[in-house]
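Changelog entry: the FtsX-like permease family protein record was regenerated in this release. Current contents:
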Amino acid sequence: MIKNYFTIAFRNLFKNKGFSIINITGLAVGMASAVLILLWIQNEVSYDQFHENKDRIYEMWNKASFSGKLQSWNTTPKILARTIERDIPEVERAVRVNWTGSLLFSIGEKRLTVRGNMVDSGFLQMFSFPLLQGNALTALNDMHSIVITQQLAISLFGNDKEAMGKVIKIDNKDNFTVTGVVTTPPNNSRFDFEYLLPWSYLRARGEDDENWGNNSTRTYVMLKPGVNISGVQAKVKVLKQKYDKDEPTWEMFIYPMSRWRLYSSFTNGVEDGNGRITFVTMFGIIAAFILLIACINFMNLSTARSEKRAKEVGIRKVVGASRQSLIAQFIGESVILSFISGILAIVIVELVLPSFNSLTDKHLFIDFTDIYFWLSGIGFILFTGLLAGSYPAFFMSSFKPVSVLKGTFKKANALITPRKVLVVMQFTFAIILIICTIIVKQQIDYAQSRETGYNKNNLIYHPFTGDIEKNYLLIKQELLAAGIASSVTKTSAPLTQSWSDGWGQEWEGKDPNDKTDFYRYNEDEGLGQTAGLTFVQGRDFDLKKFPTDSNAMIINESALKVMKFKNPIGQIVKDNGQEWHIVGVIKDFILTSPYEPTRPMLIAGANAWFQTLLIKFNEQGNTADNLQKAAAIFKKYNPEYPFDYTFVDKEYEQKFDNEQRTAKLAGLFSGLTIFISCLGLFGLATYMAENRIKEIGVRKVMGASVAGIAALLSKDFLKLVLISFVIASPVAWWAMNSWLNDYTYRTPINWWVFAIAAIGSVLIAIITVSYQAIKAAVANPVKSLRTE
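Regenerated C-alpha cells:
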C-alpha cells in the first residue's frame, strides 16, 4: 500500500508539473526563511550557555538614583571582587575583567595590534574556555604571564603548538611569557578576546585603585553549589553602603548569566523587557508566520486542483477505500513534497548564508555532522508536511462518491470561506511587515537627520599609542604646517563615545539633593574649531593667551540648565577635588546615542588626562592624499605602531547598525512573505477561474468584454486584500507605537505609510491575479460550454 501511495504521489507530481513547481518553491522558500531565522534565534539564545558553571555565574550590577531616575549599570569598583570574596562566604570565586583594549604585540620583526583583557587569575577556572596548552590553575599567576588564543598563536608563531614559553613584547615596554593557549572564544560569547593578561600586571602599573567611587571594571562572581540566592542578594545589596558612606542609597545586585544577552535592559531598577529578547520574539513570530503562509499556499494550491482528483476519490471510495486511508494517502503526498522542499530549502540556506551572515553580523552555519540537526530537520519537515497537507487531505477525503461521480460536488460559483480566511491571514501579515519596515526605516532616517551639534566630516581620531603623547606637539605642528590638517587637538575619548561620567560636583547655589550624572570630557585647546562646536557663551581654551586655561572648563547647555547660572563665565565647579573655572558654554552635541536626549557635559582643560588625538583634515585637500601624508608623519614620530585612525562620520553611522539590520531583515522577510502570499493568491485565482469556467463562457456569449470579465474575477480578491489591510493597520500601528516608545527622539507615524501599504498591496494583488483572470476571459467559450 505504501508503495502504491508513493507511485500515485510521484505520478501526480509529474502530471501537474506547473503546480508542483509552485508548491515546492513556496514551501522551500518558506522553510528556508524559517531555518535562517531559527539559526539566528538559536545563536542569540545560546550566548554564553556553553560555560560549565553557567548556572552559578553572576555579574555584579549597581542601581542608584541620578537625575531623578533609578538607573542600573554593570561597571563596578576594582576593589569589589576582593571585598566580595572576603565578606560573602557563599561566593566561591570573584574575578574582574577590564574593558577590552588593543595592545601592540612584537615578536622579532612581526608586529600585530591585538584585542584582549586583563583578568584575575581565576578567570579560566570560572569560565569554560578550554586550554589547549597550559594549566588553567596557574596560567595567569605570574605578573608577566600571558594566555593567547589558538588563532592568535597561529598568527604569531605559525603553529599553536609552538607558542608555549615564547616571549612577547607588549607596547614596546614589557616582556610576557606565553603560559597558555586557549581555544578561540566562539561567536556566541560576550567575551571576545585574543589575549588575557593577569590583573597583577595592572596592579603593578598602579592602576588597581581602591576607590569605591571609581566604577571602571566588570566583576563576576561564581556562587557555591546550592546556596540561597536571595540570601546572597541581601548581602550584596548593602556592600556599597557599607564601604562608601557617601552613597547611602546605592544598591548592588547579582545578575544571572542566563539573562545577560537577552534581558539586560532596565527601567527604574527592574527588567523592562526591552532587551534583545524583543528581537528574538519578533523574528520568531515572523518565522512562524512565514512557514504558516507557505503551508497555506500549499493548502490553497492543493484544493484548487481538487476537481482534477475528485473522480479518483469517488472511485476509490466506491471500491472500498476508507476516509482514513485517503487522508493517509494525501498527507503522505504532502510529506513527500515537504521532503523535496526541505532538501531544496537546505540548498537555499547554504547559498544565502554568507550574505545573511554579512547582513546580521554573525557567523551562522549548519553543522551537518550534528545528529540533532538531522533529527530536528526531519521533524521540521514532517511537521511542515503534516501542517500543509492536513486541510487538503480532510477536504478531499470528504467528497461523497455519488456527488463526485455525478459532477455535483462543487460549491456554486463561490470561494470557499476557509480559503478566504487563509488569504486574509497571508496578506494581513504581509501588510503588517510592509508597514513596520517603512516605519523602522523612517525612524532611522529621523535619527540620522538629527543635528549632531558638530561637524563630523573630514574628521578622524587616533588613540594615544607608543610615543604619540610624548610627540604630540611635533605631530600637531607638522600636520598643520604641511596643510594636511586645519586643526588638531587631543581629547580624553573619541567624539562619538563617553568614557567617563560622574556625579558629586559642587558649584555655587547647587541644590543639596541634586544627583546629576555628568558626562566628563577633556581637551587641551581647539576642540571647538576642530569639531565645529558652537559656543553660545564665552570661548574655547587658548593656552597661549590664557595660561590659566589648563584649569578651565567648558559646559554644555544641558549642564547650564542643571547649574542654573545666570552668568556662567567665571563660575567655579569643583570636581574630583579640583577647582575649574568656566570659560565657555557650547551648544549640546550628541556624544552617545542619537536616539536619546543629550546629557549634561563637563569639558575639562589641559590639567586632565588624554587618550585620543582628534584631527580635522584640510577640506581643500584629497582625503586619500591627506591620509597617506599623515601616515608618514605618524611613522616618523611613532615608528613602532601602525597608523590606527578612525573616521568620526563612519563611527557615528555605526550607532544605527542595530536599527539598520532590523530594517533590512524586516524588508527581506516582508518581501519573501509577499512573494509566498502571491503564490497562494495565484493558486486561488486558478481555482476560481476553473470553478467559474462555464459562467465565464455564458457571459462571453452574452456579450461581456474581456475587461469586464477580468474585473469580475479580480473583484473578490481585491476585497480580501482590503479586508487584510483593515485588520493589519491597527495591529501594525500598535506594534510600531510600542517600539517607538523606547525612543525619546521618535518619528511620527504618518497616515501616508498606511496609504502606501494599501496601494502597494492592491497593486501586487492585481498583478498576481490578472494573469489568470485575463487568461480565463480570453478563453474560447465554445470549449467551456461544449459539455453543457
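Residues 1-55+270-410 form one domain.
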